[in-house]
Design brief:
The protein is an alpha+beta fold and about 750 residues long. An 8-stranded antiparallel β-barrel has the order 13-14-15-16-17-20-21-22. The chain has a 7-stranded mixed sheet with strand order 9-10-3-2-1-12-11. The chain has a 5-stranded antiparallel sheet with strand order 4-5-6-7-8, covered by helices on one side.
Length: about 750
């Protein structure tokens, strides 16, 4: 029995030891640098550090947060990623990732909400590490796997972030004659009475019905006729584009299309596909879809780059109905080469149509919902409300007649046939046909020569009342939702957004109406003040264009990464795509162990060369020598350095960074009639402007090697052996910025 017990205990001990060993093996942390292309520098490759632990993928919190425009604060309990300053893109935000825990606290508007992470955040000697996918989403970013790198979107403000901008700077967005222009209450009262009188007298002379009704109503101190008249004018301006909004919409479409142009990774592949002479939409669609197949995981659905790609090959906006559009203008597209270029020309038209229609429909419905809401305090005169409601319903019944869609429907073929870019033409040609207004120009639909100032002033008085009510209603409902509602449903947020849009559009109209009242002599006295007010309206126009993308289902994360989306992520989470990406493109072996010890840089002639010896840890020592036989002087630059951040591009090419390069200072010596002079002022030849290096392994295709590298192989590699591939036994190291190439050779060859 004793023997049995001993054997049993031994077995238990061995089993436990194995478990401990397995546990230790499981918690091993591996660190890699991956190639990244950020959306604000699409043609540049950068590197971000990740950590692999228990098959979970982490990103260096400090590195990614700072690159995306945030700040960080770290203690023993958590790392905070935050932004407290107003920015064009980076939202006001704060997210706390708790170490050794799945606990996350994320601020939405003005309150912290508890989130659960897909796996625990980690703090170790190498830094703070947070779940890659989830962290990007919480920072209003995301990624797409593409080719040998990640495409990471820079943060963009979502709709909730606009609420915060208004909270922080509401005083700026609201407009007040006395504060912003400097009029006294007495001046304001005098202008109001004078404008009312001018408008009434002019209306009587022009046989304007509203003016005659108002003249009768004056006997009973009733302003209802003018209330209705200016309610209608306000509705027209509210439901149609201002010049500033129009320009913002153009910018939005141009930004979307920019993904497919230039030197970024996506554009290069698209252009390569186009050169294959794919001749039908269906074939191109199939090819493009293959690009997206690598992103089968959850993150692709949130990534703006991936969604833009889907728009080209899959979405209704382009391909359903595109075929007919394409056929109708195909004859006019002779000057455009490539099926993709032709499609993108048509896609531009459709992109504008979609943006314009969304704007029109959202604006009309937002105004109607606001007027019918029970929360409305009703400082707005009843007849003004009726005038707005009636006119808005009229616009709603035939919105296309008041839309930019009308212009594009009638003119896209003509514009394409002329080879004109719509984005260049629309700001000039379209404004002649559309109800796109500017109270400082003759494009305003109710402009009347000689009385525009008084007309605008009356409009300003009425829009001031509307603006005040709109703000109260927006603020009330916003506070109710964020103070009492833990779920933050998209339906509630959509309602807030409608109210927010209504308030900001009334601020815009009010400010424009005020500027329209100013005479030329007044404008000349306060040019800086006018520019400041116009700049504020430009900012508001940008908000209005973003707000109209609101949805009742949080499409495209228009409200940010809400708790409901986080719950869905926890259920559906998979990092298979990223693991596959790391296995294929991120080097796990020590590439330096594969390389020959010595590399040489030389032209194959002359009395100079540079050589260095590299160790398995990436450190190296070397020297540059240059001999002057006539003077019997050998100039020497002795140096040491280190390569690091190695990433795999493909099976034959690796990328690495120069960590540091130091020059060694030595005393000059005389030996055998020669002077050996050490130089510490010059950079060793071969390391000029050195930062990024490429490693080329035997077998790499010559077509993948830069011509500048091939130039430096003369005298070091038999050129007959270099016709198709880098010969067996030969390795290359190429200084990308300096365009200088080193060659190494195994001893066996």
């Amino acid at each position: 029995m004793k023997r049995f017990i001993c054997l049993f205990l031994s077995a238990v001990f061995i089993f436990e030891s194995l478990n401990i060993a397995n546990a230790e093996e499981q918690i091993k942390e591996e660190y890699y640098n991956i190639n990244v292309e950020f959306s604000d520098a699409r043609s540049e490759t950068e590197q971000i550090q990740i950590m692999l632990k228990n098959n979970n993928i982490y990103i260096n919190a400090e590195q990614i947060a700072i690159r995306l425009g945030y700040k960080i604060a770290v203690n023993d309990e958590y790392i905070a990623v935050y932004n407290k300053e107003k920015s064009d893109n980076v939202p006001y935000s704060m997210t706390l990732f708790y170490f050794d825990s799945t606990k996350i606290k994320h601020m939405i508007f003005n309150r912290f909400i508890d989130y659960e992470a897909v796996y625990q955040s980690v703090k170790n000697n190498e830094g703070a590490w947070i779940p890659l996918e989830q962290a990007l989403l919480l920072m209003n970013s995301s990624y797409m796997i593409y080719d040998s790198k990640l495409l990471i979107d820079m943060p963009e403000k979502n709709i909730v972030d606009i609420y915060m901008d208004i909270l922080k700077e509401n005083k700026k967005y609201q407009f007040d004659f006395t504060e912003d222009i400097g009029l006294s209450e007495t001046d304001l009262s005098t202008m109001a009475k004078a404008s009312f009188l001018v408008q009434q007298l002019n209306g009587l002379l022009k046989l304007d019905g509203d003016a005659w009704i108002q003249a009768v109503n004056n006997l009973s101190a009733d302003n209802s006729a003018f209330d209705k008249k200016y309610g209608q004018k306000f509705a027209l301006l509210f439901c149609t584009y201002s010049d500033d909004e129009f320009k913002e919409e153009i910018k939005v479409v141009k930004d979307k299309l920019s993904l497919f142009n230039g030197n970024n990774a996506l554009a290069k592949t698209i252009n390569a596909l186009d050169k294959q002479q794919i001749d039908t939409i269906d074939n191109l669609k199939k090819q493009l879809k293959e690009i997206g197949n690598v992103n089968s995981g959850n993150l692709a659905q949130y990534n703006s780059t991936h969604k833009a790609l889907e728009t080209v090959y899959n979405q209704d906006v382009v391909f359903n109905g595109m075929t007919e559009l394409y056929k109708s203008v195909q004859a006019e597209l002779k000057n455009v080469t490539g099926i993709f270029d032709k499609i993108m020309t048509c896609a531009e038209v459709i992109g504008y149509l979609e943006e314009f229609i969304n704007q029109d429909e959202f604006a009309v419905q937002a105004l109607l919902d606001f007027l019918s809401d029970i929360n409305l305090p009703y400082n707005i005169p009843l007849e003004m409300k009726r005038g707005i409601t009636d006119y808005t319903n009229e616009l709603k019944s035939n919105i296309a007649n008041y839309s930019a869609k009308r212009y594009l429907d009638n003119n896209y073929a003509k514009l394409i046939s002329k080879g004109l870019k719509l984005s260049d033409v629309l700001p000039t040609e379209a404004t002649l046909m559309l109800i796109v207004w500017d109270l400082l120009s003759e494009n305003i639909p109710f402009y009347k020569e000689g009385i525009s100032e008084t007309d605008s002033f009356m409009l300003e008085l009425y829009s001031q009342i509307f603006m005040s009510d709109a703000f109260i209603n927006y603020q009330k409902f916003r506070n109710e939702v964020f103070d009492n509602n833990s779920s933050l449903s998209p339906d509630d947020l959509y309602k807030i957004t409608e109210y927010c849009y209504t308030y900001l559009k009334s601020c815009y109209i009010n400010r424009q109406a005020c500027l329209g009242t100013l005479t030329e002599s007044t404008k000349q006295k306060i040019p800086n003040l006018i520019k400041e007010q116009e700049k504020i309206n430009d900012e508001i126009a940008g908000y209005l264009v973003k707000l109209k993308n609101a949805s009742t289902s949080n499409d495209n994360l228009c409200y940010g990464f809400l708790p409901a989306e986080n719950d869905a992520l926890l259920k559906e989470y998979s990092n298979n795509d990223m693991i596959a990406f790391i296995n294929e493109y991120v080097t796990k072996e020590n590439i330096f162990e594969l390389l020959p010890e010595k590399f040489i840089f030389s032209a194959g002639a002359g009395g100079w060369h540079t050589e260095f010896k590299i160790k398995t840890d990436g450190t190296f020592t070397g020297n540059y020598t240059e001999q002057n036989y006539y003077a019997k002087i050998t100039n020497i630059i002795e140096f040491n350095g280190k390569f690091s951040n190695v990433t795999k591009v493909d099976n034959y090419i690796y990328n690495m960074k120069l960590d540091y390069l130091n020059l060694v200072d030595k005393e000059s010596i005389y030996k055998d009639g020669w002077k050996y002079e050490y130089d510490t002022e010059r950079c060793p030849y071969g390391f000029d402007n050195a930062s990024e290096f490429m490693i080329y392994l035997p077998g790499v295709s010559v077509t993948d090697l830069p011509q500048e590298f091939l130039y430096w192989t003369y005298g070091l590699i038999n050129q007959k052996e270099l016709k198709t591939n880098l010969p067996e036994g030969y390795y290359g190291i190429y200084n990308v910025q300096g365009k200088e190439g080193f060659v190494g050779r195994n001893k066996d060859y």
